[in-house]
Amino acid sequence: MNSSQAIELASSLFIPEFLLADGISAVEAEREKTEEAIRVLREEWFAAPKGAEAFSFDLVRELADRNRALCDLICTSDKPEATSLAARIQSSTGQNLARWLSDKDLVRSVAALQQRPVSKISRVVGSSMENLAAAYVDAPVKGTVIGIDLETTGRNPDRGYIINAGWELMELSPDAIPDKGEAVWCGLPSAWDGHPVPLERIHHINAEKLAGKTPFRKDKKLQERLIRLLSSHPFLAHNASFEDSWFTLNLDGYAEGRKAGKIIPIDTRDICRRIDKDMAGLPRESHPAALENWARRRGTLDDSQAERHLGLDDTDLMLRTVQAEFSLRNMFDGQGQDDKATPKAKTPASAQNVAVDRVAEELEVALSQAAKAGDLCGWAQRWTSSAIAQMPSDIAENVRFEASKKGFAATIHAAGSADEPVLYRVPIDARKADQADLSKAMASFAASLAELSATRRTPEQSISLICTFLN
Fold first, then answer.
1. Gap between the Cα atoms of 197 and 117, Å rounded
2. Are 186 and 215 in contact (CB under 8 A)?
3. Is the pLDDT of residue 391 over 90?
4. Pairing of strands 407-412, 399-404
5. Fewer CB within 10 Å of terminal CB in the chain, N or C?
6. Both 112 and 28 in a single domain?
């Protein structure tokens, strides 16, 4: 589909009930065309020079409204053939949900946090986005930010509805307390009367909670408030591409503000992945960058607690976790950080020990399960090599990994040091139910990898993890 065809579709007469008369399959076919048209027009509008767009972004938002009406016809239908389609609409990722912010957006995010020109951040990053970790700690963060979180009825911004939003403001300082928090509730169209709220099992928001509330797209006063708010300070969100996608197709004026540079999203999940030293030592399958897991590592969420999946609650947790990470990394103004591209800050020994212990606890469970499955040696080897593979390319040459039938060894080489190396030497015995020694050794080595990844400085002593397989 080209833009002319997409505009023609957007300009055509739309009476959803007429489509339903031709059956659910006709509605589904129209939905697929509409989502493609939204993508085509959205991409063309953002690609066009500011002020030279061939059409208003209102046209794109109206198409998204139309598409939600089509989805409602399917998802609220009692016809048997609609059931599987409704499940796919809920679970699949469509064409108009971004998975991440662009590199340009990420660079702009760092500039906003440090209140510096984008050009300075670009010089630190250079030709590789792997250098963005250094850019985050190149200068202190300061100013005021807004944290925001949305709860929705689905994944895709052109299929579902915003039903809850929560936001708070916070000064970027180590002792600031998030304040001016608000939570708003938004209703669903009448098509959903008598039906349960989608994704209620996750956010626990039921129809009773939304009864009498105005749908987000119809609440123009709320939208005006949000535009003023989001234009006043950079906003933080965990996996900000989600909020960015939803606001683009649901909030009047948001796309225009984004294109003009007046609205700046900052992805706290990217912050976690770039500067959290514990990340390199955690397996991908444990979802270490998830807000709940990150908050537990930083002590802003107890092990007995869980993420609430409510806008204001999750916003508050996110802001306090970001603050804890920034404080740990000495990133606030006045914490003695020099204006250099490579950070000096080190994780305090007590905090690092806590992180190692937590990683070790998670590893011990996984290693015990691998032993029961008869794959202990292989699992430990794969986990270690995977942790090394995640190292930034500019420092990967300092780490070596060797494997044989008898075991494996991983080493972080010191730069020209003759000091005695630090050795974590552990025999791997698959017959043991207790894998505490192995898990502690692997976690300690992973912490050293994380230190190297974060600081870009080789250790004073070589550090080796040597594991031998017992028959």
1. 44
2. yes
3. no
4. antiparallel
5. C
6. no
- Distance, CA of 86 to CA of 103 (rounded, Å): 34
Examine residue 458 and state whether it is found in any structural domain, yes or no: yes
Q: Is 266 helix (H, G, I), strand (E, B) or coil?
A: strand
Residues ≥6 apart with Cβ < 8 Å to 94: 35, 155, 156, 158, 159
What are the backbone dihedrals phi and psi of residue 233, each rounded to the nearest 5 degrees, phi first?
-150, 160
CA distance linking residue 267 with residue 242, whole number of Å: 10
**Domain with 282 in it: what CATH number?**
3.30.420.10
**Are residues 45 and 73 located together in one domain of the fold?**
yes
Indicate whether 237 and 373 sit together in one domain: no
pTM: predicted TM-score of the whole model, two decimal places: 0.71
Domain hosting 45: range is 3-91
Please tell me whether residues 82 and 110 are part of one structural domain: no
φ/ψ of 176, rounded to 5, equals -70, 150
Domain shared by 267 and 405, yes or no: no
In angstroms, the CA 178 to CA 56 distance is 37
Local structure of 273: helix, strand or coil: helix
DSSP strand E in 308-453: where?
Answer: 399-404, 407-412, 422-428
463-469 and 407-412 beta bridge pairing: antiparallel
Q: Which residues pair with 215 in a beta bridge?
A: 187
**Considering only CA atoms, which of 186, 125, 184 is closest in space to residue 160?**
186
Tell me the C-alpha distance between 32 and 128, whole Å: 37
193 and 248 in a common domain: yes
Residues 176, 258: Cα–Cα separation, whole Å: 28
Nearest residue to 2 (alpha-carbon basis) of 46, 57, 41: 41
Distance from first CA to last CA of the chain, Å, rounded? 62
Question: Which residues make beta-bridge pairs with 412?
Answer: 399, 463
115: left (phi over 0), alpha (psi -120 to 50) or beta: left
Strands 144-152 and 422-428, by their bridges, are unpaired
Shared domain for 134 and 11, answered yes or no, is: no
Sequence-ordered list of residues with C-beta below 8 angstroms from that of 127, at least 6 positions apart, any chain: none
**Element at 149 (helix H, strand E):** strand 144-152
pLDDT digits (tens, 9 = 90+) for 274-316: 999 887 777 777 788 999 999 999 899 877 666 666 779 999 9
DSSP secondary structure string for all residues of 31-80: HHHHHHHHHHHHHHHHHSPTT--SS-THHHHHHHHHHHHHHHHHHT---H
The pLDDT tens digits for 126-168 are 888 888 998 999 899 999 999 999 999 999 999 999 999 999 9
Phi-psi group of 46: left, alpha or beta (phi > 0 → left; psi -120 to 50 → alpha; rest → beta): alpha
Q: Give the total number of structural domains in the chain.
A: 3
| Residue 274 in domain | yes
Are the C-beta atoms of 461 and 414 separated by less than 8 Å?
A: yes
